[in-house]
Specification:
Layout (H helix, E strand, L loop, with lengths): L4 H16 L2 H8 L3 H15 L4 E4 L2 E4 L1 H25 L8 E6 L11 H11 L4 E6 L2 H9 L5 E6 L9 E15 L11 H10 L1 E5 L14 H4 L2 E5 L1 H9 L4 E5 H10 L3 E2 L6 E11 L6 H19 L1
Parallel strand pairs: 3-4, 3-5, 7-8, 7-9
Antiparallel strand pairs: 1-2, 5-11, 6-9, 6-10, 6-11
Helix pairs in contact: 1-2, 1-3, 1-4, 5-11
Length: about 300
């Protein structure tokens, strides 16, 4: 198995869980829900073909294999972090720079204030160099903590929380719903009880910060106990949904083009939705420079303008 960026993120989740001593205890450190942590640990176990920990009535404990993986993980991540620090120190940073991280597929949301903010900054701070990277929620938080991002724009839902060491600026809300292809079995079901049973047996794909039940009355927990869940990017979810293999949890603004074309249908519109709250997030140092404060102020102003429309 070759290491990739996603493998490194899974290893960081495992390290946080092992250090905290359990899934629930790692939630505050990671800023993601317990079901999301569980899903990522399961994915890592699948990648490595080893059970990493026991979690049950007797509590959390690393297996023998998990202890070995933690030892190797700690050594590897320490080496990577040290090398990253050395690389970052090689070049002198520009006088004015803003490094912004975003989660994928925000661009089609008309409530997203980032484009208006970038236009304002081009006008008001023309010598500001802006770098934008696309990450998942967890990676955005990691990049902030490692001082490789100045500001991240992320969505949270369910039991996800902004880490306590970060300052959060509310920007807008995004609604996501369940969709499927017209030829998917769930598309033809209108009876709520039958649909609930069908969804529990279906393969479901959900984007990375929405690992929580869609409907509090839905039993079993839809995204935790369904037949299979692919948890990755919104674009991957769109592929799986459009081809008919999965029911997909997609942002409504992103799915609208396929919905209008008849390539997707919305599943049980009155029940199966999640509202994600998008925030700009930055860590809490003693002071920010004028350029970064200008970015923050512009995001705040444009978010207020968008909500007033």
């Amino acid at each position: 198995m070759k290491l990739s960026d996603i493998d490194l993120r899974l290893l960081r989740v495992f390290q946080a869980v092992a250090t905290a001593g359990g899934f629930a205890k790692a939630q505050s450190a990671l800023g993601i829900s317990q079901p999301a942590i569980s899903a990522q640990i399961a994915k890592l176990e699948d990648r490595l073909s080893v059970r990493l920990c026991d979690r049950g009535p007797k509590g959390f404990a690393l297996t023998e294999g998990g202890t070995a993986v933690l030892r190797e993980t700690t050594e590897l991540l320490n080496q990577i972090d040290a090398a990253a620090a050395r690389l970052n120190s090689i070049g002198a940073p520009p006088a004015k720079r803003a490094r912004i991280g975003v989660v994928d597929c925000m661009i089609t949301d008309p409530s997203n204030p980032l484009v208006s903010t970038l236009r304002d900054l081009r006008r008001d701070v023309p010598d500001l160099r802006i770098q934008i990277g696309i990450y998942d929620f967890l990676e955005c938080i990691e990049e902030l903590r490692a001082n490789r991002l100045d500001i991240a724009i992320v969505g949270i839902s369910g039991t996800e929380r902004i880490p306590s060491e970060a300052e959060a600026l509310p920007l807008y809300e995004e609604t996501s719903s369940l969709y499927c292809a017209p030829d998917h079995p769930c598309a033809a079901i209108s009876n709520p009880d039958e649909l609930r049973a069908a969804l529990a047996k279906a393969d479901i794909s959900a984007h990375s910060f929405a690992f929580n039940p869609i409907d509090k009355d839905l039993d079993p927990m839809l995204l935790d106990q369904s037949n299979g869940v692919a948890e990755d990017t919104i674009e991957l979810t769109a592929y799986l949904t459009l081809c008919g293999s999965h029911v997909g949890l997609l942002p409504d603004h992103y799915a609208s083009i396929w919905l209008k074309a008849g390539d997707l249908v919305q599943v049980a519109t009155q029940h199966n939705t999640i509202v994600s709250e998008f925030h700009a997030v930055r860590l809490r140092p003693n002071a920010y420079d004028a350029a970064l404060n200008a970015v923050w102020a512009s995001l705040k102003s444009n978010a207020s303008s968008s909500s007033a429309r």
